[in-house]
Design goal:
By secondary structure, this protein is mainly beta. The protein has helices at about 80-85, 250-255, 260-265, and strands at about 15-20, 25-35, 40-45, 50-55, 65-70, 75, 95-100, 105-110, 120-125, 130-135, 150-155, 160-165, 170-175, 185, 200, 205, 210, 215, 225-230, 235-240, 245-250, 270, 275-280, 285-290, 295-300, 305-310, 320-325, 330-335, 355-360. The strands form eight sheets. A five-stranded antiparallel sheet has the order 1-2-29-28-27, with no helix packed on it.
Amino acid sequence: MWYGRRLWLAGTTVLVLLAAVGCERQPAVELEQIAALDQAPGNITVTPDQRIIISLHQFFEPRWRVAEWTSDGLKPFPSAALASSESGEFRLYSVLGIQSDSRGVVWMLDNGLRGNAIPKVVAWDSRAGDLQRVILLPEPIAPDNAFVNDLAVDERRGQLYIADPAGGSNAALIVVDYHSGYARRLLQGHVSVVPEDIDLTIDGRPVETRQPDGSRARPRVGVNPIALDAAKEWLYYGPMHGTTLYRIRVDDLTDDTLSSEALASKVESYSRKPICDGIAIDVHNNIYVTDLADNGIGVIDSSRKYRLYVQDPRLSWPDALSFGPDGRLYTVSNQLHRSATLNAGQQTARAPFWILAMPPLSAGASGR
């Protein structure tokens, strides 16, 4: 698989029409350009202090792993040495998942693939400017083909919930107690985490990888989008290459007395969804979905029906979502389907890449 361990402007506001599937045209949604970037972002988080932090996508081999957007442009986060895998204290190899908590601690999920390193979670206090903790995810928590991709932070319980699409058939969720470092790999191979046999087609072309023998393959990626609801009662997730969004009660997921079979019986099918890379949930449990095939952001409301919320050519592979303390919903786009990794070996992505923002239906907790 393409993700396996062994695979080898700003400030402008425009109006975008909200297209609702099977419904009449809805009011226009404002999509605002926050930044035009010359480097491709991975994920995004907005801290309670309105600091915009992005991971830089490893498929483009950036010098920095994580960066902060400022009025002067991008700068390495948390510092040049720590963002570029040069620190003797700890190294960041290839960060994708990133989330700020309510105290401004930025949790960075390092899959380790650029250095063939053990995956880990790094927590950095953006207010105090110091390292909070490093949690390693060795085997068997993260197997040899792990690609820990995204995470949700549960401050109430002191837990992290991590999506690992791994090799597809062994996709799983990882639950980590971030005080003790105790971790468990759960629901491995369950229908809610493994990919469906469906192609992702963007701009009329299927996403393809080039194999070592020169042949092409169409990837199938397991669990990736993951988010907690506002009440921290449910964890929502699903395979990237999948048409169903699932959920499970957090109290069940963190109950280590449940057998694998008992835990699997607690998973619920929640709604239909498109192939997507990230989700976010507001205070009224509207679920926002990065709609890769349609260059848009969709929403699943209380009716549990999916509809397109905003669509724009700049949303060319919208990778992730984050609410800001200013009430806006932020996203990034990175043209990932035009990277050499997902374009059969041909790099055709071109700057600018985007940080964009829009008004959600309701506010959400900053950070995710």
